[in-house]
Write the C-alpha cells for this entry.
Amino acid sequence: MYIGRFAPSPTGPLHFGSLLAALASCLEARRQGGHWLVRMEDIDPPREMAGAADLILRTLERYGFEWDGPVLYQSRRADAYRAALEELRRGGVLYACRCSRREALEAAAAAHLAPGVYAGTCRSAGHAIDGPGALRVRTDGRVIAFDDRLQGMQRQNLEREVGDFVVRRADGLWAYQLAVVVDDAAQGVTDIVRGSDLLDSTPRQILLQHLLGLPTPTYLHLPVAVNAAGEKLSKQTYAPALPMDNPLPPLWQALTFLGQQPPAELLEGDVPALWRWAVVHWDAATIPATRALPL
Ligand code: GLU
C-alpha cells in the first residue's frame, strides 16, 4: 500500500512553503488510496521554537488535514538511531572526525573540492568512534542515481560532490540524513513527496538505505516557492506564518502553485468542500517540473 508522509521540523510556524509539501504529499496519498503520516522532526533543539510542534499540528487541522495514526516524534527515537549507527559501524563505513569547520574548508580547497565538501581528512585517522567528534559515513567513490517522479533522472557523485557526511554531530545530536532514513523505513513509507531543496540530500539517503539494508521509496521533489529575490520561502527569509483565521486563500493558492486548476467558487465555500474537490481532481502530472517557482 502507498504510504506517504509530511515531516516538518518544529523550528517555527507553518508557512506557505511547508503547506505545499503537506498538501501535495497528502493529496497524492489520498489519490492513491494510501495512508498519510505526520512525523515531527524535532531532533535539533537549538533550532527549535517552543510550542512550534503543537502549533504546526493545530494549523494542519485547521487547514483540513487528517493524518493516519499517531504523530511520530523523532525526539523519542534515539534507540533506533543508535541501532542504525551500530549497524554502520559493523559495516566498517563509520568513522570519527575531529576536523574543525576551518580545517575542513582548507582541506576541501587543497583538494580542489567545492567548499562544504568534506575531503575525507579523518578517514584513516583511527579516532575512537565513542570518543569526541562527529561521526561520518564513507562515500568511497559512490555514484547514486535515481529517477525523481517530477525532476527526472538525478545523479550524484557523493564522494566528489558531498564527501563523507555526518550522521551524528560533534555535539551529540543526530543528523537529519540518518534520522529521516531510519524513520521512513520504520513507518513503512513507500513514497516521498517534498520540496526540491531536499533533492541534493536524496543520494545520501539512498546510500544510507543501501548500507542499512532498507528499501528505497519513490521520490517526487516539488518546486519550491521563491520570493522576488529568488530566495526560498523559509523562516530565514521571514516567510509569514499561515493565517489561522482563513485557510481557504492559502489552500487555493497552493493548489494553483502546484499546477492544479481549482475553480474560484471554492474560495466562497468551506475547507471540507475544497478538500473534496482537491482529492478528486488532484493530478501530480500537472505539477510544474522545475526546482523553483516565484510566488
Ligand atoms: N524535516 C525536513 C524539513 O522540514 C523535511 C524532511 C523530509 O521531508 O525529508 O525540511
